[in-house]
Structures are given as structure tokens and as C-alpha cells.
């Protein structure tokens, strides 16, 4: 079995408490890796290493172009080993290898994009209202940043935090999900081999209360970025508030995918399928509510059911598998319970449901592509995030009704709009209470486009030119250029 220690100060280190835990392959249900079980001592070692790397000026003291060159070398090393990263991540979270390969192939682009920003962090000289006074506004890093990530896309979501943080001159301590630690550890090893100085990027593995909490509470951690569920997000936000440090949160969603009557139905149906059934629905931006104009509702439903019923469940590493197992047993139980609640509340199951299976015997915990109709806004299946391949279908009468239904959620991560009338698409997008709106596409992200949530889906943004500002603080410098004596405030005139 593979053994993975923490990655601290450029080295793989054993857990200080001598404890290890198993990481399971979600398809076989068997342990495939042994992971260091971290504690507050390990967290302290990693944070002190990052703090030392920050204050020794080995990183933020580099000229911006030299820091960019180091990040570019890191990006190239990731590109060279992207297949290895994809294999490890797919083994750990059970996601389709084809999907993870796509994500891993994108990682270097993300790092290159932020590397390109290193020498573009420019201050300002505001035209001060005071004569002979010069004002300089500088952007400076925070110091040690912490990144806490979930299991569904561990590497991509880590790089969304790591790349801008390092480009801005900060150092970093990552805490990956206890279900998927291996790929983040491999990334740190690659970073170190590519020439990142020791301590610039550390990874401590283990559980939320043992590692996540001491990390966010550590006095030397100056900024936090968290992606995960709301309960964990709230605890992290409260810890940040206690320390009065900034924190970005990327949380859950219950996103609407709206199909108007004039949509290209072939494209729209494929968009709904990729929005909710790709990644077995285990994505924060899943389009879990299909809102369909009543005139095309039946046709869309028939097409969706046909695709859902034809989906092939199986080994995530096989290229013809459509639906991979759910990543963890607790997640499977959560989906199972939500499906049961929908049935008890009167929703009609048109396709799918939970697949009776035992990991190891038949290969993982599976949920078939599942579609519910006859739902109403009060049902839990309409309000709560399943984080699985579970779609609810709701008809709408007109544009206003579609907007009302789409926004009838506490979440606000994303929304999709399908129409050939681009003016209508843009008009409706303006009414969406969501951080990302796709028109005639879905689940598309870019390093150039800010990503984050409205409402309970989160605070702050990742990606895009704005993202680097999340990792920089402003300093105002006032300079007096006059030869005149400064007035003594104690002398009356
Ligand atoms: P989770 O909240 O259980 O865990 C996320 C991370 O937080 C893990 O590393 C975990 O160990 C850590 N953690 C848990 N409690 C903590 C605490 N008290 N202090 C510090 N760290 C703690 O989430 P998950 O089950 O891994 O992921 C699923 C959730 O993530 C879903 O709700 C999903 O919507 C959300 N998600 C959001 C986005 C986004 O970009 N908005 C992306 C992916 C996943």
C-alpha cells in the first residue's frame, strides 16, 4: 500500500503522533493508501515553516519576474506529470479518469496565468488634495495563507487558491480533504522538485477538527480560503472572525438550469445532462433544478429519461463509464436519505435511484442518474444540495415565473439559461441571483473568470484578475515633499 506523509519544509515527514489512516478507492472499496493523521503539532510545524519562508524573503523577496519564473517552472513540472496526478486523484475520489485528466491538463494554465501577474501588481499614486504631498498605494502579501479543500476536485480547487496566493508573494499551508489527500501531497512534491523554496507550499493531512481547526486558529495564519460544505465553512468563518483575518468561502449550490421554449433542445438537454450527471453530480455548480417552459417540458423530460436510463455505471478508469461511484459512504448515505425524503414528500421518481451495491463486491456506492417530477418548492429535494446525480424538473409559464423559481433558493452559486434569443438570455442573466450564469453552455470555468457565490454559496471570488487581490492587502504611504516646517500642534497661532 502507498504511504503518504505530510509535506513540510520541502520534505515528506511522518506524523508527529505516529498515527496513519486509510484512504479508500471508492470503486473497489479497499484501502489503497495510508495517509499521515495530522494534529496541531504537525500544523504548527507547517505554519512555522511557511512563516520562516515568508520572513526569510526567499519568496516574496524575489524580484517579481524571478518569482514568475519559479511558478512557470512549477507549471511545466505539473504538465509533465499531469497523467500521474490524474491517476492518483481518480483512485482517491473515484471520479471518471477522463474528467480528472481534463482538469489536470488545465492546472498548468492556471499557474501560468497567475505567474503572469507577479510583475503586474502595480500600486497607485492618487492625485492628493494636499499640496506638496505624495501618496503611494502599494499592494502587499499577507504572509502565511491557509487553503482547505474538499474531495470532489482536490487539485483544481487547491490550485485556484495556491496559484494567486504564491504569485502575490504569500506562502501556503494546504489541508486537503481526509478522503483525498494523495494528489495534493504529490503536487507539493512536484512544486518542491521544480524549485519552489522549502516552506513556500506545505501540506498537512488529516481530519477537520484535528488539522483544519488548528490551522485556521493558528496565530501565524493571516488569511484563509475554504471550499467545502456549509457547516465546515461556518466554523472556518467564525474562526477567521475571532482572529479578524480575511477568509473566502466557496460553499454549496442548488443551481437552476432554465430551458426556454425557443432553445436548441439538443444542446439544452446535453447541457442539463452535463450539468447534473457529469462527475456523478458531485460538483458545487451542479445544475440540480431543471426549469423547463411548459410547452417543451414533456419533450425535454422524455429525452432526459432516455439518456439517464442508458447511462453506464462502472469503473471510473474505464473510458466507456458514464457514472462513477459516489466518492464516500457518508456522501452516498446523504443522497440516499434525500431521495427517500423526496419520495415520502410526494415527488415522483421518473428515472434512477440508489443502486443496491456493496463496495468491493459490485464496485462502489452508486446512484443512478435520478430524475424527480411533481416537486414543489417546499420539498427538501428542491431546497437542499444533494451533491449527487439527482435532478428535479419544474415547468414554468413565462420569463418572470422562470426567474422567480430560479431565485427561490438560499444558494446563489450558478445558473444556466438556454435560448436562441440572446437578448432574452442576457436580460434573464441580469436577474439571476448567482455568481456565475451560463447562456447556452454549462459548467464552463476559466482562469480568467471570477468564480464564487451569491447568498449562502459563499464569500469572495477565485480566478480572474480580481483573485490576486484576495491575497494582497493595501498599504498607503504619505510623503511630505515640502521644506516648510511641520506645524507644532502645541503652539497656538
Ligand atoms: P466538508 O465541508 O465536509 O470538507 C471540506 C474541507 O473542510 C475538508 O478538508 C475538511 O476536512 C475540512 N473541514 C471540515 N470541518 C472543518 C473545520 N471545522 N475546520 C476546518 N476545516 C474543516 O466538504 P466536503 O464534503 O469535502 O465537500 C462537499 C461540499 O463542498 C459540498 O457542500 C459542495 O457544494 C462544496 N463545494 C463547493 C465548491 C465551490 O467552489 N463553491 C466546490 C466544491 C465543493
Kindly describe this structure:
- By secondary structure, the protein is an alpha/beta fold.
- 36% of the residues lie in helices and 21% in strands.
- It contains 14 helices and 20 strands.
- The strands form five sheets. Strands 14-15-16-13-12-17-18 form a seven-stranded mixed sheet, sandwiched between helices.
- β2 (6-8) and β3 (11-13) form a beta hairpin.
- The protein starts with a strand and ends in a 13-residue tail after the last strand.
- The site of nicotinamide-adenine-dinucleotide has 31 residues, from α7 and α8.
Q: How would you summarize the topology of this molecule?
A:
Layout: E1 2-4, E2 6-8, E3 11-13, E4 20-24, E5 31-36, H1 40-55, H2 64-80, H3 82-93, H4 97-115, E6 133-141, E7 144-148, H5 154-167, E8 171-175, H6 182-193, E9 201-203, H7 208-217, E10 221-227, H8 230-243, E11 247-250, E12 256-259, H9 265-276, E13 289-293, H10 297-310, H11 329-344, E14 348-355, E15 366-373, H12 380-383, E16 390-396, H13 399-407, E17 414-418, H14 422-431, E18 436-439, E19 458-459, E20 472-480
Parallel strand pairs: 1-5, 7-8, 7-10, 8-9, 10-11, 12-13, 12-17, 13-16, 15-16, 17-18
Antiparallel strand pairs: 2-3, 4-5, 6-20, 11-19, 14-15
Helix pairs in contact: 1-7, 2-4, 2-6, 3-4, 3-6, 4-5, 7-8, 9-10
Number of helices: 14
| Strand elements, count | 20
Largest sheet: 7 strands, mixed
> What is the oligomeric state here?
single chain
Q: Which distinct ligands sit in these coordinates?
A: nicotinamide-adenine-dinucleotide
| First-last Cα distance | 82 Å
Which percent bin holds the helix content?
Answer: 25-40%
Strand content: 15-25%
Cross-sheet strand order for the largest sheet: 14-15-16-13-12-17-18
Structural class: alpha/beta
List unreliable stretches of 5+ residues: none
Using only C-alpha atoms, the radius of gyration works out to 24 Å
Shape: globular
Mean pLDDT: 96
Amino acid at each position: 500500500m502507498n504511504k503518504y506523509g505530510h509535506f513540510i519544509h520541502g520534505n515528506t515527514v511522518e506524523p508527529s503522533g505516529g498515527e496513519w489512516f486509510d484512504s479508500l478507492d471508492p470503486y473497489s472499496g479497499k484501502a489503497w493508501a495510508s495517509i499521515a493523521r495530522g494534529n496541531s503539532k504537525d500544523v504548527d510545524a507547517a505554519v512555522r515553516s511557511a512563516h520562516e519562508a515568508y520572513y526569510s524573503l526567499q519568496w516574496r523577496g524575489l524580484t517579481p519576474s524571478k518569482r514568475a519564473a519559479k511558478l512557470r517552472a512549477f507549471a511545466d513540472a505539473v504538465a509533465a506529470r499531469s497523467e500521474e496526478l490524474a491517476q492518483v486523484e481518480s483512485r482517491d475520489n473515484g471520479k471518471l479518469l477522463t474528467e480528472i485528466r481534463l482538469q489536470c491538463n488545465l492546472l498548468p494554465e492556471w499557474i501560468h496565468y497567475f505567474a503572469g501577474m507577479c510583475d503586474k501588481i502595480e500600486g497607485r499614486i492618487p492625485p492628493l488634495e494636499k499640496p506638496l504631498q505624495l501618496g503611494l498605494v502599494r499592494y502587499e502579501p499577507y504572509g502565511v495563507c491557509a487553503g482547505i479543500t474538499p474531495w470532489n476536485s482536490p487539485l483544481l480547487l487547491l490550485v485556484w487558491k495556491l496559484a494567486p496566493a504564491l504569485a502575490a508573494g504569500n506562502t501556503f499551508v494546504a489541508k486537503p480533504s481526509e478522503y483525498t489527500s494523495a494528489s495534493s501531497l504529490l503536487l507539493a512534491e512536484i512544486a518542491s522538485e521544480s524549485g519552489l523554496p522549502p516552506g513556500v507550499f506545505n501540506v498537512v493531512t488529516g481530519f477537520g477538527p484535528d488539522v483544519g481547526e488548528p490551522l485556521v486558529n493558528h496565530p501565524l495564519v493571516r488569511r484563509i480560503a475554504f471550499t467545502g460544505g456549509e457547516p465546515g465553512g461556518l466554523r472556518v468563518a467564525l474562526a477567521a472572525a475571532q482572529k479578524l483575518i480575511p477568509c473566502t468561502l466557496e460553499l454549496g449550490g442548488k443551481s437552476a438550469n432554465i430551458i426556454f421554449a425557443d432553445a436548441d433542445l439538443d444542446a439544452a438537454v446535453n447541457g442539463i445532462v452535463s450539468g447534473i450527471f457529469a462527475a456523478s453530480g458531485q460538483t458545487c455548480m451542479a445544475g440540480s433544478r431543471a426549469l423547463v417552459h411548459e410547452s417543451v417540458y414533456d419533450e425535454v423530460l422524455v429525452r432526459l429519461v432516455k439518456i439517464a436510463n442508458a447511462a453506464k455505471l462502472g469503473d471510473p478508469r474505464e473510458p466507456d463509464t458514464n457514472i462513477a461511484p459516489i466518492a464516500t459512504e457518508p456522501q452516498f448515505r446523504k443522497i440516499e436519505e434525500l431521495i427517500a425524503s423526496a419520495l415520502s414528500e410526494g415527488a415522483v421518481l421518473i428515472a434512477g435511484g440508489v443502486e443496491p451495491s456493496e463496495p468491493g463486491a459490485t464496485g462502489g456506492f452508486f446512484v443512478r442518474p435520478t430524475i424527480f417530477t411533481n416537486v414543489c418548492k417546499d420539498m427538501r429535494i428542491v431546497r437542499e444540495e444533494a451533491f449527487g446525480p439527482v435532478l428535479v424538473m419544474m415547468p414554468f409559464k413565462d420569463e418572470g415565473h422562470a426567474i422567480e423559481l430560479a431565485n427561490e433558493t438560499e444558494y446563489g452559486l450558478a445558473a444556466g439559461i438556454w435560448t436562441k434569443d440572446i437578448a432574452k438570455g442576457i436580460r434573464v442573466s441580469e436577474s439571476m441571483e448567482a455568481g456565475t450564469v451560463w447562456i447556452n453552455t454549462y459548467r464552463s470555468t476559466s482562469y480568467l473568470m471570477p468564480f464564487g457565490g451569491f447568498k449562502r454559496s459563499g464569500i469572495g471570488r477565485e480566478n480572474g484578475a480580481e483573485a490576486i487581490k484576495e491575497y494582497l492587502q493595501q498599504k498607503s504611504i504619505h510623503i511630505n515633499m515640502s521644506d516648510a516646517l511641520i506645524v507644532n500642534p502645541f503652539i497656538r497661532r
